[in-house]
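new request in #modeling-help
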Amino acid sequence: DGGITQSPKYLFRKEGQNVTLSCEQNLNHDAMYWYRQDPGQGLRLIYYSQIVNDFQKGDIAEGYSVSREKKESFPLTVTSAQKNPTAFYLCASSLTGAYSNQPQHFGDGTRLSIL
Amino acid sequence: AQKVTQAQTEISVVEKEDVTLDCVYETRDTTYYLFWYKQPPSGELVFLIRRNSFDEQNEISGRYSWNFQKSTSSFNFTITASQVVDSAVYFCALSEAQGKRGSTLGRLYFGRGTQLTVWP
């Protein structure tokens, strides 16, 4: 079955540590997105990529980094500069980022906590 | 700037009651798209419906129906005869119109969500 796989499901970060969240899709989608969800805050866009080797900052990119070297993969690194990383992280993809009518498909999420 | 408001933070109903989730949006674009997503306790967001700004027809899908009113910038979602399995957080979202590459095309602006609890 086609879909989006996020791993790990749960992740713990120590102070000063960088951690990387994995997102893989086999839907052959061009566009991929990372969102952060905090209680009562809805989803906030961290980074998005409309095509391989290209990505753009969203609303809350500080303290995060991404890469898009392959179409199917869009890993998110939470750096030590992100002082409040505890949240639920959701990865999404859509057929293309060139048109705004494409629904986004979501993974199951990664819950990140600070030790 | 785009903005989506879901004023209802939490709603509780008893099974078989009808429930309406409100969504109000703001945009300067004349062409835009509206979405509803469901987030069950497992965490993933499930796409429910997409509506474009030129189509104001209401839509019904089983127990779900959507009322899009451009005049009031609202896109409300009604569940008829609610069931326990409908318990979830529901998000309304808005996306921008087509434009140049490099803009924020394709990104969704989400409301804060409405937690719906359906009691047996």
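bot summary: Chain A is about 0% helix and 50% strand.
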